[in-house]
């Protein structure tokens, strides 16, 4: 997932899951949902600026 683009789902600031997109030729071809607490705790998440 290093450098991958995705969506952070964190209602009320509590991390619930991350959706990770695989992009090929400008289109999303795969979406991986990560909700396992152990995996989530290992992710280094960043929010991109506008």
Describe the structure.
It is a single chain. The protein has 50 residues and is mainly beta. The chain has one domain. The protein has one helix spanning 37-42; strands at residues 5-9, 17-24, 27-34. The chain has a three-stranded antiparallel sheet with strand order 1-2-3, with no helix packed on it. The longest helix has 6 residues, at 37-42. The model has no long low-confidence stretch (mean pLDDT 92).
How would the blueprint of this fold be written?
Elements: E1 5-9, E2 17-24, E3 27-34, H1 37-42
Roughly how many Å apart are the termini? Answer: 22 Å
Helix- and strand-based class? mainly beta
Order of helices and strands: EEEH
Average the pLDDT over all residues and give the rounded result. 92
Shape: globular
Instruction: Please compute the radius of gyration using only Cα atoms.
Output: 11 Å
Unreliable stretches, pLDDT < 50, 5 or more residues? none
Beta strand count:
3
Tally of individual domains: 1
Q: Major beta sheet, specifics?
A: 3 strands, antiparallel
Q: Helix proportion of residues, in percent? A: 10-25%
Helix count from the secondary structure assignment:
1
How much β-strand is present in the residues?
35-45%
Order the strands across the largest sheet as they lie in space: 1-2-3
Oligomeric assembly: single chain
